[in-house]
Amino acid sequence: MMSLIIGLGVVLVLAILYLIFRIGNLVSLVKGKKDEDTSWNSLNAYLFMLFMIAGLIGFFWYSFAHFDSYNLPVASEHGVVTDYLFWVTMAVTVVAFVLIFIVMFWFTFKYRYEEGRKAAFFADDHKLEIVWTVVPAIVLALLIFSGLRAWNDITAPASKDAVVIELIGQQFLWTARYPGVKDKQLGVHNYKMIDASNEFGLDLSDANTYDDFKSLELHLPKGQEVQLMIRAKDVLHSVFLPHFRLKMDAVPGMQTTFKFIPTKSTAEMRAETGNPNFNYEMACTEICGRGHFSMKFPVFVHDSVEDYEKWMASQEAWLKQNPEYLQRVPPELRESAMIKAGIPVDSKEAIMATPVTVTLN
Amino acid sequence: MATIDIHPQTSTHHDDHGHEHEHHHGNFWTNYVFSEDHKVIAKQFLITGMAWALIGGVLSVLFRLQLGFPDADLSWLRPILGGWLTPEGKIDPEFYLALVTMHGTIMVFFVLTAGLSGTFSNFLIPLQVGARDMASGFMNMLSYWFFFLSSVIMFTSLFISTGPASGGWVIYPPLSALPQAMQGSGLGMTLWLVAMALFIVSSLLGGINYITTVINLRTKGMSFTKLPLTIWAFFFTAIIGVLSFPVLFAAALLLIFDRSFGTSFYLSDIYIGGEALPNQGGSPILFQHLFWFLGHPEVYIVLLPALGITSEIIATNSRKPIFGYKAMVGSMLFIAILSFVVWAHHMFVTGMNPFLGSIFTLLTLIIAVPSAVKIFNYVTTLWKGNIRFTAAMLFSIGLVSFFLTGGITGIFLGNSAIDIQLHDTYFVVAHFHLVMGSASFFGMVAGVYHWFPKMFGRMMDEKLGYIHFWLTFIGVYLVFFPMHYIGIAGFPRRYYSWTNFETFSGFADLNMLVSAAAILTLSAQFIFLFNFIYSIFRGKMASANPWNSNTLEWTTPRHPGHGNWPGEIPTVYRWPYDYSKPGAKEDFIPQHIPYSETPESNLPHENELVKLEMNDNAIVVEDKKHH
């Protein structure tokens, strides 16, 4: 009933508007309208000026007044560089934008229609055209080359002593795999070996897998180069660490990588932002399905490399958490696997007797 | 009402202004449905495009409701959305993705490609080059009906139980290839691919026709250097489309194979739904390369016609020649060529080789130069003009404003180092909606206001046009400008909600503003819709050349019949931008007026041409001089 009344109300209002429009049309037809046209024309010109002034004021006011709400603090070395490039580009483009914006709307106002005035017959001017082709070309060239230098540094191969961490995206969560402290090497994986427990698809014939461990939080050392090895299990995902100015897609069937140096620990960032609950976060930025918006992965930056290594040492190897997978380890490697994974060697018989609950493909 | 017999070539009848409609031979079906007249086909494209724009706009308001008012109870939408609302009256997260996907697909392809090129290339090419019709009227008709079929299939996909395609308008596999990954990748995706395949057929049939017509059917004297910029724009657009759409077709075909026949073009090492798939060796990046090989030129397929239309409208309503005609053509040519070698700037952080990233950064920022030239030329055309703010002119100025605002942010995104942070955030959304979406949409609307008198023989209401413009212009800025801030703050696009993240917890206020502005902007389009329909039937009668414009279409009668000119096709003597020529009696000299009739305004070299006009070979001789 209510919606019927609302519906009727809307129809009534529309009918009234239509009538006003119709009557207005007829009246203007009777009045004749040469003068009226010119004043409407001027109204549009004034509105353009008003728009230009109000628009620019709004733009500058918001940009300065709310700077802190849209400017994320930066926490990586290359992030400082790309932020600098961003703001240089911003300065250049804002100057160009404001100039053209003002000139254009000023022209629409200044040269609005006047009866009897004749427009200038001004069809080309080669000097002018060359100037405004060459000037943007030079400015752009400068921006390009500073950008390319930064890009080449960012995408250069990681150094040998970089900390390697693997990030795996799947619908709709992230996991991280760390090389164990014993061999500091990530073991080989194979997607065909993935099952409910072996979520990394670890190939247990590779000795480097034995001390690898899983983490549901990305731990990073401050001041040390980190190389992220990124992959996906099912569809595309994308690693996005907004404070570190870092983004790289996770692609099924292809390893991608990104190296960076965190410069502020979580504790330092808490002090800087004045927010004791501050936490770094990692998000997914490649559409991956229903839960795309919920793929949050917590990030923690340790105060020092030692601190980070201490944390590393405290983690349990994946194999220790899933000892039944020892059966997948080639017999001659089992003992060393147990040592590497930190499984007491005397429990071997018991482990070999427990059936693996998940059948492997 | 008398029946007027208009046969191309033979007809000598003149149009009778007293009649409401032309009646030519043939029945309702051949005149209005399966018509081969380019003007009727243009109107078919226009009206279908407008219907799609409305659907695309409504979809965007639906997902803006979720983003701007995340706690609102939308149960009142249940009669329309049914099961796509959760029991609490919120939009289902997967349906949200479907909305985003279909909004993009509809707007990019069905509105701004078919609706824009389909309408104006069809309507204006024969009229402005001086041709009776397209090179092949039959192919032209097929072009529309393939589009119609494609539209029907795409529209149907909105109503199936598993929902339409939902993997983003870019349909990146594996998400789009695996029905296990999301519902929309099932039947919805199949329908999407079939619809797009038909769409590409339509686009190719149209494009080949446009190119052929421009090259072969120009009237006497219409050399390439005398073509209006609209025609240059449509010509380049058609060439870009013919060269790039087949690549999308190939990409879609391979995706169909991967989905249905077990091939592995794009699939490799996938573990999903508790099983490892057998596909190995494929590459999702391959799809992205193929997709963006069309996808980026597509941006210019959408934009160039709008730029051509506004060049014409701005010159006409400034009463000035367009500034730098040759530079305008040259920059469009340059943009058209470069548009094929910048595609991978959409892929800087996809894992593509970073060296490729450097190359594409370089090429991408080069394309900013001709774009900047175009803006400067528009602004200079306004300088010392005598500007009439018709509704079409307002929308054209709006286009230049959007092209500037949105174009300038391209300098950030094209720079790979800066793009790392901005990629797939709202900064990108703001960028392309302004520079491509809104700018092209404004070009399309400007075109409708400007050529409405020639399409329907009546004028649209100017004052409603003003209201429509100001609401839309301010509305669009309020929608997309705030998104820059949201993007700089890192908010990712295609997010159903940001509240899971502390980093993205702010800006509820701006998002609400954006959503409110989106509703306002959509509402304003109903003013246009009303104006459009009302004016077809009751608008003021238009004169044959209501804007005092120079191009050939205004030499046709108020209701041009099939064949366009009742008598001979006019011969062209001059370029289309002789506005406010010093010495001339009026502030415009149409293209078909020979120099011999305008001794008072001729420039010295034009006086030379007067002699040549006397003999029949005049045009040929003059052509040679040009090249």
Structure description:
The complex is a heterodimer of chains A (361) and B (627). With 361 residues, chain A is of the alpha+beta class. Helix content of chain A is 46%, strand content 15%. Chain A has 2 domains: 34-112 and 126-155, no CATH class; 163-353, Immunoglobulin-like (Sandwich), CATH 2.60.40. In chain A, helix 2 runs antiparallel to helix 4 and helix 4 runs antiparallel to helix 5. Chain A is elongated. Chain B has 627 residues and is mainly alpha-helical. Helices cover 60% and strands 1% of the residues of chain B. The longest helix of chain B is centred in the first third of the chain and has 37 residues, at 93-129. The model of chain B is unreliable at 1-23 and 620-627 (pLDDT under 50). Chains A and B meet through helix 1, helix 2, helix 4, helix 5 and strand 7 of A and helix 4, strand 1, strand 2, helix 8 and helix 9 of B.
Order of helices and strands of chain A: HHHHHEEEEEEEEHEEHHHH
Helical content class of chain B: 55-70%
Number of domains as seen in the coordinates of chain A: 2
The unreliable regions of chain B are 1-23, 620-627
CATH superfamily of the largest domain in chain A: Cupredoxins -  blue copper proteins
Strand order of the largest sheet of chain B: 1-2
**Approximate helicity band of chain A:** 40-55%
Under the CATH scheme, which class of the largest domain in chain A? Mainly Beta
